[in-house]
Design brief:
Blueprint lengths: L14 E6 L13 H16 L3 E6 L2 H6 L11 H24 L4 E7 L1 H5 L1 H16 L2 E7 L13 H11 L4 E6 L19 E2 L22 H12 L5 E5 L3 H5 L6 E3 L8 H9 L4 E5 L1 H10 L8 E6 L6 E5 L5 E6 L15 H8 L13 E3 H4 L8
Parallel strand pairs: 1-2, 1-5, 2-4, 3-4, 5-7, 6-8, 9-11
Antiparallel strand pairs: 7-8, 9-10, 11-12, 12-13
Helix pairs in contact: 1-3, 6-7, 6-9
């Protein structure tokens, strides 16, 4: 793994993750467009022929099923989404397999949920499987497992999934292919909007309007793209954002799209998931002393430092940790159920163990299950 200093070095990268969105693989009616898919496969196959390992994160499973299932547009209810994904995923991988077979390449389907990036055993299995596919010269086709993923255990969109897969496979760069050719200073359709060629850090995108919606067949817009960029760049992986039409030029290192430079060091996938992708189920409000202990000394969160709790969660669920002003300073996996916590607030673990038993001598959030948000990206801290 190397940190690429600029886009011109992208062709020399040993390993790259390429994410292609639904809007880049479907026509205006939501049907899978085989010509568009084949064009992407041709570009990726060319990189493989040049000795570069490419992992493809492909959206489009649900969109691919809209025509065969006679659905007018993307379903909103979870059950229909899961049914459409079940039908569409098979069609999607079949077309990828045919497109890559023309270049003598095989594909392997890898379906993930956020749970697979969080649970250590799942993460290691996913990492080993992807690594072995690459060693065998197989192109991994990664997608979120929409058939079984629920709101509580989903990435939310394939942009975030792609950023986390980049860490899972120790990629040198992430390429996001979308329906716009770059980040612009405003909505791309406005005459005054101009392309932003390079972003060196969060300050470079301050004030840029990214609120415009994406394609009707996709789940993300520019906001989710920048969220995934933050996940990758803040932990050492640069990102190229451009259109599917520019895929060849972008991977060749040409001046297209927007290049986001890496701004931090690599972090564990588990911590990245906690900081960026986990759907929290509650909040622990801590006093100023606990904030200092977490930030300055890397300690676990003990009941003595917690002053309030909100939400409904079970032991092992992700929760936010906020300071007295409401700023979220950390996220972590809580060790108790929500209904157990109020009785623990402000109390020493030794006293709790003596009164309630040995099971209550553990931390509220262990430091191994906790991530400080400012360590990865200060822009991710929120206040409510």
């Amino acid at each position: 793994m190397t940190t690429l200093a600029n886009r011109a070095l992208l062709p020399a990268a040993a390993r790259v993750v390429v994410k292609v969105g639904s809007s880049s693989l479907t026509d205006g009616h939501g049907h899978l467009d085989r010509e568009r898919l084949t064009a992407i496969a041709n570009v990726v196959a060319e990189r493989w022929a040049a000795g570069q390992m490419v992992v493809l994160v492909s959206s489009g499973a649900i969109a691919a099923a809209l025509g065969p299932l006679a659905l007018p547009d993307r379903p909103r209810d979870l059950a229909t989404q899961q049914a459409a994904a079940s039908v569409g995923q098979g069609l999607l991988v079949e077309h990828w397999a045919q497109a890559f077979a023309a270049h003598g390449l095989r594909v392997g389907q890898v379906l993930l949920t956020a749970d697979d990036a969080m649970r250590r055993a799942h993460y290691r299995n996913a990492s080993r499987a992807l690594e072995r596919l690459l060693e065998l010269g197989v192109v991994p086709i990664v997608n979120e497992n929409d058939v079984v993923a629920t709101d509580e255990i989903r990435f939310g969109d394939n942009d975030r999934l792609a950023a986390l897969v980049s860490h899972l496979v120790r990629a040198d760069a992430l390429v996001l292919l979308t329906d716009v050719d770059a980040l612009y200073t405003g909505p791309p359709g406005r005459p005054a909007s101009v392309r932003v060629p390079v972003v060196l850090g969060p300050d470079d995108v301050e004030g840029i309007d990214v609120s415009h919606r994406g394609s009707a067949v996709g789940t993300g817009g520019m906001v989710t793209k920048l969220d995934s960029v933050a996940i990758a760049t803040a932990s050492g992986i640069p990102v190229l954002l451009t259109s599917a039409a520019n895929a060849h030029a972008g991977l060749a290192g040409n001046d297209v799209g927007t290049w986001f430079a890496a701004t931090g060091r690599r972090a564990s996938v588990r911590h990245l998931w906690l900081a960026h992708a986990a759907r929290t189920r509650g909040r622990l409000v801590v006093d100023a002393g606990a904030v200092r202990a977490l930030r300055d000394h890397g300690t676990s969160l003990l009941p003595a430092g917690v002053v309030a709790v909100t939400g409904r969660f079970s032991a092992g669920d992700p929760v936010e940790i906020a300071d007295p002003d409401g700023t979220v300073v950390a996220r972590g996996l809580v060790a108790y159920d929500a209904d157990e916590v109020p009785a623990l607030l402000g109390r020493q673990t030794a006293d709790l163990a003596a009164e309630l038993g040995a099971g209550y001598d553990r931390e509220l959030v262990h430091r191994d299950d906790l991530v400080l948000l400012h360590e990865l990206n200060p822009e991710r801290r929120t206040k409510t």
